[in-house]
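Checklist before submission:
- one chain only
- standard amino acids only
- sequence pasted in full

Submission:
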Amino acid sequence: CTKGKCYKQGGRQLHSALQDAVDSDPDLSHVSIKATGCMKACKHGPNLRLPNGRMLHSPTPTEALSRMQPNR
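Returned file contents:
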């Protein structure tokens, strides 16, 4: 999420870090990073929703990237 409280709690930085990692790593070519609006979990932000529907609360870029690897 890159809105409101999540934005202030690092959502923009998380988005930028993930996008930079995906852009620089051919092994992550299957990953698409998209900014979203509010996901109604502001107290736990920044928030990241994975393709499987699972939401990560306050992930580091390293944690988020590890969840984006195939078979994780």
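Reviewer check: Residues 4-24 form the longest helix (21 residues).
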